């Protein structure tokens, strides 16, 4: 592979052979491309010497692990016209490791990161998007002894997350042993990366997200109602898949759209004492008829004990219609007063803190949940505000409120039905029967 296809910031990173190396790079600058290239080059170099090297890439999810393999490792090996065997092998419980094996025994594998998979390895490691790994401190504690051998290398690369997580510590600790590489979007463009910075900034239309994702600034999570680390602790790849619904009682939250916002329906299934997000329906610029039709499907396909619907403003009419269709005891209209919003947001946060909520690891959902901020009102009471987020498709925290509504529906007591058998004679003679 010719160095002409690499930008100077990528070459600087690759030429740094430090044992411990970290990179905090802007979005769209080739983080995974570059780190997988380093692993491939190391393996090919060993193969030419009749030796072997082993690398494991720990990704934020199995989907990201597959992407790193297909659009990183395999891409580079094919560019070098290197022979390899590609495999998907069982790895830990319900997980796959995506591997390539070279003729002399070198191996690169990509797996989803968690503390259990990090244990027991003895090889070079790459932590891809480490700031966004679920419980990255626990992963760090499990993996660091793995690379105790002086010939093994550790690479940690990510866009920044919140202040206070392990990646923040690696990048800011003055006593850190890491050789650190920081590449903002401005650095990358100055080195020749073809990007229109102003167009990207205008398109994002979110100063905080821009600072974090493109300027590599750590965002202080103190004002965020749900810090990234808390959100990540509740993520599970088994969530968000309707086919995994097990037939249990469900709770629904629905946030109706205003103007260009999303209409979102969140479906939570209670499994033991844990609420699993089974389905997240998102609709933009749809009529109330279409939105109610989507709710009808949800009420039919799931055993919905209770549904909480946003009745504020435009929600008045569709909520009344939903009550007519599905019953006033199953459907509750919620007016978004400051007090009620705080109650719902608190219930959602407590569920997350108790680890009794499971959500899928989706960037747009993560960004939406993090977008709600806490600030003091003139009276000193906490007040929640939501900023629009580009990751979430210009959502105004619609996913946050749909999920909060669903959690609040699970908090409220579900209607209890009792049946009593009566004789035909008694039934026929009842006053209630005559009214029907």
UniProtKB/TrEMBL annotation:
Bias (Basic and acidic residues) ranges: 361-376
All copies of domain Terminase large subunit gp17-like C-terminal, residue ranges: 252-408
Matches recorded under Pfam families: Terminase_6C, Terminase_6N
Region annotation Disordered: where it falls in the sequence: 361-391
Domain of life: Bacteria
Keywords of this entry: Viral release from host cell
Protein's UniProt name: Prophage MuMc02, terminase, ATPase subunit
